[in-house]
Amino acid sequence: MTQRLSTNLRVAFFIVGTILVLLAAAARVTPVAAVEGRQPAAQDNSYCLSCHEKPGMTKQLPGGLLSLTIDPEAFKHGVHNEENVACVDCHTNISTFPHPDFTAASPRDVSLQLYQTCKNCHAEQYNKVLDSVHQKALAGGNFNAAVCTDCHNPHEQTRLTDKQTGELLPQARLNIPTTCARCHSAIYDTYKKSVHGGALTNAGNKDVPTCIDCHGVHNIQNPTEAAFRNDIPQLCAKCHTDPQIMGKYGISTQVLNTYVADFHGSTVTLFEQVSPNTPTNKPVCTDCHGVHDISKVDNPVTGISIKENLLGKCQRCHPNVTTASFTDAWMSHYVASPTKFPLVYYVNLFYKIFIPAVIGGMLLFVVTDFIGRALRARKGVQH
After folding, report:
1. Torsions phi, psi for 26 (to 5 deg)
2. CA-CA distances (angstroms) from residue 170 to 33, 39, 173, 206, 208?
3. Are 155 and 74 spatial neighbours (Cβ–Cβ below 8 Å)?
4. Fewest CB within a 10 Å sphere: which of 4, 241, 286, 294?
5. 98: cis peptide before it, omega within 30°?
């Protein structure tokens, strides 16, 4: 009896020991996050990162290899983590391991399936994107057109604007061109050599425009349309009429006034105000200064303060012009003064005095004659 009991105890201890060994082995090879059926704590991203922070984690899709690794340091300093946004707030269909079946055909298909979740928190920006050239291209079948996550990596995106003022942070401003360069690399290569891009990318000058200053942020419009072209003078005037910015570089703030005052600008302004979608063949700022390749006006090769360079611009519309003296009529956006274009200044001054004097004298003659006639008629005097 005692021997049988001892044998049973040994068997029981053996079974319990075997179970404990197996459980220990399982704990060593299976991460906590991968225990089937374990529910993550609310707002606890460590549950997801326990697997996804491992280097080299991938998933093979029919159209390519999808990386599933999240850089834990980049995620830690990202704005979503700072704002306590949980993984499951965006990946709403995932709460346990194993995950539901994933139907994406390629890594690009993953982005196209997931980016719409951004509207849950960023509805205003998402709605603006719906009217953008990117969204129109996407709707037209161009699946490489940019979506939210192409510009803003949700796992690494740092804060872009100041929480108090809403102003774009300096570092975020410097990063804008390289963000756009992910798709528009050729334009970026041109821009960084221009007077604007060179000052930003090489010297960190935040006075110069970046991509979004001209094209907008989320509601980017098609720059090839007539409405965009007709609005270019007003677009450039945002900076070039600002005395605080232009004063630093000795640039005239009369660019818009002098442009609107001549035949070219008057015509374009009329189109912009009355019929913005109607094309006009009159030049706007970019026709003379360039688009992404704008250079300093005194650049000996491309600067349009050099008569020969400016003549080349004029000949695009005036092909029969062959002499550089044709450009003498252009005053480089400066208002005539005794030191700049004195002849024009004094001719204008003459007419400012002469015309009022002539018209005023005529009015004075008419008024005095009328009064004289009225007085004589009152006295009964006849001519």
Report:
1. -65, -40
2. 39, 41, 5, 8, 12
3. yes
4. 4
5. yes
Going by C-alpha positions, the residue among 79, 99, 86, 89 that lies closest to residue 33 is 99
How much is the pTM?
A: 0.77
- State how far the Cα of 154 lies from the Cα of 105, in Å rounded to an integer: 21
Distance CA 220, CA 216 (A): 5
Residues contacting residue 181 through CB under 8 Å, at least 6 positions apart:
187, 188
Q: Assign 311 to helix, strand or coil.
A: helix
Tens of pLDDT, residue by residue, the chain (383 residues): 444 445 554 555 555 555 554 444 443 333 434 434 444 444 488 989 999 999 999 999 999 999 999 999 999 999 999 999 999 999 988 888 888 888 899 999 999 999 999 999 999 999 999 999 999 999 999 999 999 999 999 999 999 999 999 899 999 999 999 999 999 999 999 999 999 999 999 999 999 999 999 999 999 999 999 999 999 999 999 999 999 999 999 888 999 999 998 889 899 998 988 889 999 999 999 999 999 999 999 999 999 988 899 999 999 999 999 888 898 888 888 888 898 889 989 999 999 999 999 999 999 999 999 998 888 888 876 55
CA angle 110, 114, 115 (to 5 degrees): 115
Nearest 5°: the CA angle 100, 103, 107 is: 115
- Please give the span between the terminal C-alpha atoms of the chain, in angstroms, as a whole number: 162
CA-based torsion, 268, 295, 292, 178: positive or negative: negative
Two structure tokens written together for 147: 């979506």
* Residue 220, number of CB atoms within 10 A of its CB: 21
